[in-house]
Amino acid sequence: MTITDDSYVLITGGAGYIGSHTALTLIEAGRKVIILDSLVNSSVEAVRRVEKLSQTKIPFFNLDIRDTEGLKAMIEQYPNISAILHFAGLKAVGESTQIPLDYYHANLTGTINLVDVFTKSKKAQNKSPINFVFSSSATVYGDVTRFPNGVMIPIPEHCPTDPINPYGRTKLFIEHLLRDHTQSPQNTNWNVAILRYFNPIGAHPSGLIGEDPLGIPNNLLPYLAQVATGRREKLGVFGNDYASRDGTPIRDYIHVLDLARGHLAALERLEKITPDTTADTGFCREWNLGTGEGSTVIEMVDAFSAAVGRDLPYEIAPRRAGDVLDLTAKADRANEELGWKTQFDVQKACEDLWTWTKQNPQGYNDSEAN
Ligand code: NAD
Ligand code: WQD
Question: 104: how many CB neighbours lie within 10 A of its CB?
Answer without folding.
Answer: 18
